[in-house]
C-alpha cells in the first residue's frame, strides 16, 4: 500500500475511533444530562454534538467542489438550544453529519490528497483539510468526554485504561 492510500485509510480509522469515543461517553449520560450546561457560557453535550454535525455537513457536502463553509450553514444557531432537544433528535442530527463525512471520504482517491479545497475561502490541500477536521473534532470529542465524565462522576465507566489499572 502506498503512503497516500495508507493516509486515507488511517484518516477514516481515526474518524471512526473519534466518533465511537464520543458515542461511548454519550451513552453513559442520562437524557437530562445530555442538555445540561455547567454554566451559562458553557455548551451542553447536545450542543457540541449539534455543532460537530453541522460542521461535518458544511465541510464535506460537495467537499471537492465547493467551499467548506456553506452559505446555508447557521453556525451560531448550532449553539442555541431548541425545544426538541431530545436524545433521538440529537443523535439523528449527529449521524447525519457523520454520514456526509464518511460518504465524502469513501469517494476520495490517493490522487485527491494534494488537490485544493477551500474552507472559508482559505486554500487547503485535501490532506490539510482532513487534518484540520481531525484536529477540530478531537477538541470537541475531548469536551464531550470531559462533560460526560464530570456529569456521571462516581458512575463513570472509563473509556480507556481505568485509574490504577495500567
Radius of gyration: 17 Å
Q: Care to count the β-strands? A: 2
Just give the CATH class. Answer: Mainly Alpha
Total number of distinct structural domains = 1
| Structural class by helix and strand composition | mainly alpha
CATH topology-level name: Four Helix Bundle (Hemerythrin (Met), subunit A)
What integer is the average pLDDT?
A: 95
Distance between the termini: 34 Å
Strand proportion, as a percent range, falls in under 5%
Write up this protein.
The protein has helices at about 5-25, 30-35, 45-60, 85-105, 125-150, and strands spanning about 115-120, 120-125. It has five helices and two strands, in the order H-H-H-H-E-E-H. It has a two-stranded antiparallel sheet with strand order 1-2. The mean pLDDT is about 95.
Q: Brief overview, please?
A:
The protein contains five helices and two strands. The protein has helices at 3-26, 31-34, 45-60, 87-107, 126-152; strands spanning 116-119, 122-125.
Topology:
Elements (H helix, E strand, L loop, with lengths): L2 H24 L4 H4 L10 H16 L26 H21 L8 E4 L2 E4 H27 L14
Antiparallel strand pairs: 1-2
Helix pairs in contact: 1-5, 3-4, 3-5
Could you list some keywords that capture this structure?
166 residues; mainly alpha; 55% helix; Four Helix Bundle (Hemerythrin (Met), subunit A)
Amino acid at each position: 500500500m502506498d503512503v497516500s492510500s495508507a493516509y486515507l485509510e488511517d484518516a477514516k480509522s481515526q474518524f471512526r475511533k473519534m466518533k465511537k469515543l464520543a458515542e461511548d461517553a454519550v451513552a453513559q449520560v442520562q437524557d437530562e444530562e445530555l442538555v445540561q450546561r455547567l454554566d451559562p457560557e458553557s455548551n451542553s453535550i447536545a450542543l457540541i454534538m449539534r455543532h460537530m454535525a453541522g460542521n461535518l455537513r458544511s465541510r464535506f457536502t460537495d467537499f471537492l467542489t465547493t467551499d467548506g463553509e456553506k452559505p446555508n450553514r447557521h453556525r451560531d444557531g448550532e449553539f442555541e438550544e431548541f425545544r426538541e432537544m431530545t436524545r433521538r433528535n440529537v443523535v439523528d442530527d449527529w449521524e447525519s453529519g457523520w454520514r456526509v463525512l464518511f460518504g465524502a471520504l469513501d469517494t476520495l482517491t490517493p490522487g485527491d490528497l494534494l488537490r485544493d479545497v477551500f474552507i472559508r475561502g482559505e486554500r487547503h490541500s485535501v490532506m490539510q483539510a482532513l487534518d484540520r477536521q481531525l484536529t477540530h473534532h478531537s477538541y470537541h470529542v475531548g469536551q464531550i468526554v470531559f462533560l460526560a465524565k464530570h456529569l456521571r462522576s462516581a458512575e463513570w465507566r472509563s473509556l480507556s485504561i481505568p485509574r490504577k489499572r495500567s
